[in-house]
Write a structure and sequence with these properties.
The protein is α+β, with helices and mostly antiparallel strands. The protein has four helices and 23 strands. The strands form five sheets. Strands 1, 2, 3, 4, 5, 9, 15, 18, 19, 20 and 22 form an eleven-stranded mixed beta sheet that branches. It starts with a helix and ends with a strand.
Length: 348
């Protein structure tokens, strides 16, 4: 009996030890797994958040710098010219003798040399006013002098400025060698207390989206005869999506950089010029540019017909498609060629 009791006690002790071992194992296992379980319970899934793309903004016409409009000599003795590739718009219009003159508009540029600068003609003032530009020239016709005063146009006349503001270079001959810079223009403008900022909207309806003119006609080359003397040609550079400019059969180059003169957009406006009866015998011209005129908008190798509408000399020109909608213009520089209604423009 005692022997059986002793065996029973031993068995119970073995069971107690075994049970204790199992319990201890479970406790230790539970302690080891608890941090992982807590971590899994508290784990928060973080999904990748895509950063919004920055808003696209027009680059060619931005900021509050007031535009500067500079009269650029286009006589072949003035070639090459400096600054045309930096202008957001360049207007080309006929002057006396079948020549054309250019008016280049700059905004927020810092250029050491612009020119050669030449004298004012009164109808260029219309396009300086619609851009709210400081008007820069070297001399003027009697009509331009009168209209600058009449319309109270902020102007800088190189003839009355010091040689610090305008100077003549030696690698061209007078009168095709007067130049200036944006810094010197602004220095003169501030001395004259002209405002140098502007909130006026751009003349052109720029868009950051690419304008392809899908329904337009092919425009790989554009030839514009302003006169029997001055024929301009643009050739499309498909790789860079710009037009290279030629005049009188010569490729136009920048005076400072030697690079080809190019433009993203071309606008053609058909409106007649005529000779003034001013008694001067110099054949000075005027322009019939108030009203609605036919034209073309050309970009990216295509062209569409448009209407060019100008209601007054100081009002902005509106460029509309044939359905009466204002055209969208690619974000890039623009040459505006104003030529006679009977000009045999060739687009192909």
């Amino acid at each position: 009996m005692k022997k059986n009791t002793k065996i029973l006690i031993i068995i119970l002790l073995i069971l107690i030890v075994a049970a204790g071992s199992v319990l201890a194992f479970k406790i230790i296992k539970g302690q080891n797994s608890q941090p992982q379980q807590v971590a899994e319970k508290n784990e928060v899934k973080v999904e990748a958040v895509e950063e919004p793309e920055p808003e696209k903004k027009v680059q060619i016409f931005s900021g509050d710098d007031r535009p500067i409009a500079v009269m650029i000599d286009n006589h072949n003795g003035a070639w090459p010219q400096a600054g045309l590739n930096n202008a957001y718009m360049v207007y080309e219009i006929i002057v006396e003798g079948g020549e054309t003159r250019l008016m280049a508009l700059f905004k927020g540029q810092d250029l050491d040399k612009i020119g050669p600068v030449r004298s004012s003609r009164h109808y260029f003032l219309d396009y300086a006013m619609e851009n709210d530009a400081i008007y820069v020239h070297y001399g003027w016709s009697p009509q331009a002098k009168s209209d600058i005063s009449k319309y109270d146009i902020d102007n800088i006349n190189g003839i009355t400025e010091s040689t610090e503001i305008f100077w003549r270079v030696t690698d061209k001959y007078a009168p095709h060698n007067a130049v200036t810079s944006t810094a010197k223009i602004l220095k003169s403008a501030k001395a004259k207390k002209y405002k140098t900022t502007s909130t006026k909207e751009s003349v052109l309806n720029y868009t950051v989206e690419d304008v392809d003119l899908e329904d337009g006609k092919t425009a790989k080359t554009v030839t514009i005869p302003h006169s029997t003397l001055q024929k301009v040609k643009y050739e499309y550079d498909e790789k860079n999506q710009v037009y290279k400019r030629y005049a009188r059969g010569k490729a136009q180059k920048d005076w400072t950089t030697g690079k080809a003169v190019t433009t993203k957009n071309i606008i053609i406006t058909f409106c007649n010029n005529y000779t003034l009866s001013d008694g001067s015998g110099k054949g000075r011209q005027s322009l019939t540019n108030i009203g609605t005129f036919d034209g073309y908008y050309i970009t990216n190798g295509k062209a569409i017909k448009i209407k060019c509408i100008k209601k007054a000399r100081d009002k902005q020109t509106k460029y509309e498609d044939l359905d009466g909608n204002e055209i969208e213009v690619n974000d890039g520089n623009t040459f505006v060629n104003i030529c006679p209604k009977n000009a045999k423009v060739v687009i192909k």
